[in-house]
Request: fold
Amino acid sequence: MEFKHDVIIVGAGLAGLRAAVEVAGNTDVALISKVYPTRSHSGAAQGGIAGALGNEEPDLWEWHMYDTVKGSDFLADQDAAEILAKDAPRAIYELEHMGVPFNRTADGRIAQRAFGGHTSNFGKAPVKRACHAADRTGRVIMDTLYFESLRKGIKVYEEFYLLDLLMHEKRVVGLVAYELATGAIHTFHSRAVLLATGGFGKVYKTTSNCFANTGDGVSAAYRAGVSLQDMEFVQFHPTGIYGLGVLISEAARGEGGILRNRYGERFMEKYAPGLKDLAPRDVISRAMAREIREERGIHGRDFMHLDLTHLGKDRLAEKLSDISSFVRIYLGIDPADDLIPVQHTCHYMMGGIPANLDGQVLGENQQVIQGLYAVGECACISVHGANRLGCNSLLDLVVFGHRAGKRIVRELGDLAWNPMPKEPDKSFLVKIEHLKERQKGESAWVLRNEMQGIMTAHCSVFRKKEDLEKALAGIQSLMERYEKVVIDNRGMRFNTDLTEAIELGSLLNLSHVILVSAMAREESRGAHFREDYPERDDQNWLKHTLIQKTGEVCRLSYKPVTITRFEPKPRVY
Ligand SMILES: Cc1cc2nc3c(=O)[nH]c(=O)nc-3n(C[C@H](O)[C@H](O)[C@H](O)COP(=O)(O)OP(=O)(O)OC[C@H]3O[C@@H](n4cnc5c(N)ncnc54)[C@H](O)[C@@H]3O)c2cc1C
Reply:
């Protein structure tokens, strides 16, 4: 079937929903999501949303901006970081007025807690800046925004899978989607498409991300010729449950939790004497990896302990109830009595589809691509630079989702209906037919496990040239083997065998792009730490990476970082 809507939003996380709320009511807008909308990963966000409300202690947006820029290891574009920090209080009060049930202070204001890298007075001391609803902040914001967007009359296509973007003379004219319930392929004709398809932690073996985070939107943009930005910057969160990767939010340390090594030492005192366990994630993940290398992991193994025992049962129940129950369910221990085994877990992608301050996607020569927008984790605006601070993602989603929505409404009058390509769904019909007919080859899950193993072993918290080269050769060989991937299920309804094979195509593409970008950057900055180039090198590398697909190969180029208020300085915590 062919559907037609003025605006199509792909992705029902907070980025897509916040944009939808802005556009709905003004125009005909449809939302497509491959998972049931409220199952999007945003609903798993635990710790909070950052904003200098100053409800618990004095705070200023300038301090928030400074922390964001310093946390990013000075790679964030400072015009974007300024908008993020300045607009935060408005965006959070707006959510409150829509009905988000934030925790409260004794006098009824929105409660705030400490989080990694959030400080007062330009780095002097930790400050309480994270607004939260216990440890299910994403869930309550998501339910509120979903309800609001339905109330405003958006049309939702749930469990529809974006296969490809449709372009006409370098403009976006719509997309092709696969309906999971029926196996039918549909085309969508539109004047504007907004991508809000989230991250792609599934490139790695251990991740806090949900199964749907396979980077389909980022990969589709790459295939359509868009350069991807800063893809080498992959965030590893220090506290995933050992062996599983399920997240124990930084809120646990914000509430007073402490990381300990096999001797019970609070090792972060050594690596970040100022902020200790509340240093940014890249700093803590590296410190943990060092402790493990130097045989101070628990029992000499590859994990550390998170100690919450001193917080007491009541505080755990009131402020950290979900993660306490994860620990009870997955590990069979009680955080009030036992130490929690934790290990770093792939958490967030700083890189993605380059977009300007209004979410308009930038194409060749950094010119706006008419009708194409990107916000949220799939985009790179770039507000997080080389390392994102906790609670700045939820903020990014609502601040830039709001701006992109407003921009679409303003621009729509100037966006024409462009013609669709002939037989737009043909190539996917053929591809899926071939996939179903093929009898011999390897299963997607075999290739996926190998890919995740390679990326985890060679392109994680520490990187070096030989490892990256090894990984690149491995991923290239997997890409060749992927040409002959086979599936067992040849049916039409909810064929997850088929969709997982398609998702693997995106993951392989993105692994390749991460590796090529990481090999080129011969310095250490934020989450990208090169053992063979351990220093930050502002002279040569204070710039954003761009990587573009040109035929079967890819081409790297660079663009300058926007610096407005804060000159790069060494990062000391
Ligand atoms: C466990 C966890 C806890 C976190 N806690 C916090 C926190 O406390 N504070 C904070 O600031 N950040 C937190 N983060 C980060 C933050 O939650 C994410 O960065 C953010 O939610 C991403 O939102 P999004 O709207 O970009 O995408 P998502 O919420 O990931 O949604 C992506 C959407 O895209 C859709 N989609 C993807 N591919 C396709 C396709 N091919 N076709 C159709 N639809 C598609 C999906 O169906 C989904 O609706 C956390 C992340 C995790 C994993």
The chain has 16 helices and 22 strands. The CA atoms of residues 49 and 394 lie 6 Å apart.
